[in-house]
């Protein structure tokens, strides 16, 4: 139960499986294992365990309800797979001209179809007032940013001039008002104030739409000074469970949620700062011989696989002891200081920056200063009480400096409001 609450789904899965092995009639083991499988998106396996509980306890209304909801998900996934065929992309089917601006629309408008600084300021102001971007402009931003990402490599090389500041932010997770606080503290993105947002822009927080259109807008406005890396939550599987898909459908359309998946599949997986610092969302690898060229060669235009380099870039975590262990998350790997040092030496790097984990201070320095975690969503899910943080670097020495901050107030919309209904049933 503690592992489930702390999102260590792999550890929860191992515990439940051991409990079942020790006692085949231990019903709670099947129940907890089903919840771990659900959280990992393994719906068929979850359904099997939920059904086992419902069979043993036919009068348990909660177990029966979860089995029914899980069955609906399995059928939905099977149906989507059955009807899926090779068709042209959603982006290619959008007809912008048919989208008419209603007379009462007072939100921001693109100038000649282009994002401007004035548009971005008006967009953020609209979002702060809980307004909405017109679907015509929302689709245009998605179309344009997809075109931009498809032309970029999997590993982006970012030069930072000696006297220039560069900011790296970690997970945002749909916390729009905390994103605005970062810009208040550190300045708006610009050609002289570049940013890298290191994945997990969406899910859990219920202002994910506002976050992602703000970030995509700045990417279009400053393509060479604003960078975005894919996180494990920029995927259809995660979005289906943890709220983003439901939020997009509620605020726009199902078609738009499909288009987001297309865009996310093209997000770069890592950034190389001044040829000295590698930044990825998750972490390092199960193999010792991985090079930067191996990362460059990854075919990223897909849903993240369950193993391999792409999976590990998005899902892995550091551990204090040497060596490697199975991930407590159930995906990726846990890697020790020796793994980090060997990777840095092989690739002539100084240190790595990654995100992916809540830290009470908003950041953590591990592996003798060679592995830095940055997490930028304070009071994560309105429950964790953690600070948020971001890193600033100067090109002349690349030494990380940390700025921490507390969560700011937001409208009374709870996290996970749009998440899959089965998750809301979990304790």
Put the structure in a nutshell.
By secondary structure, the chain is an alpha/beta fold.
Helices, strands, pairings?
Elements lengths: L1 H4 L3 H14 L4 H13 L3 H14 L4 H23 L33 H12 L6 H16 L4 E4 L6 E5 L6 H11 L8 E3 L10 H14 L4 E3 L7 H7 L1 H8 L2 H11 L5 E4 L3 E4 L11 H5 L12 H7 L1 E2 L5 E3 L6 E3 L1 H11 L3 E4 L8 E4 L4 E4 L13 E7 L6 E5 L15 H5 L2
Parallel strand pairs: 1-5, 2-3, 3-4, 6-10, 7-9, 10-12
Antiparallel strand pairs: 2-13, 5-6, 8-9, 11-12, 13-14
Helix pairs in contact: 2-3, 3-4, 4-5, 6-9, 7-9, 7-12, 11-12
Outline the structure in words:
It is a single chain. This protein is α/β, with parallel strands linked by helices. It folds into two domains: 1-83, Serine Threonine Protein Phosphatase 5, Tetratricopeptide repeat; 117-425, Purple Acid Phosphatase, chain A, domain 2. The protein is 41% helix and 13% strand. The chain has 16 helices and 14 strands. It has helices spanning 2-5, 9-22, 27-39, 43-56, 61-83, 117-128, 135-150, 176-186, 208-221, 236-242, 244-251, 254-264, 292-296, 309-315, 337-347, 421-425; strands at residues 155-158, 165-169, 195-197, 226-228, 270-273, 277-280, 317-318, 324-326, 333-335, 351-354, 363-366, 371-374, 388-394, 401-405. Strands 1-5-6-10-12-11 form a six-stranded mixed β-sheet. α6 runs antiparallel to α9 (208-221) and α11 (244-251) packs across α12 (254-264). It starts with a helix and ends with a helix. The active site is at 233 (proton donor/acceptor).
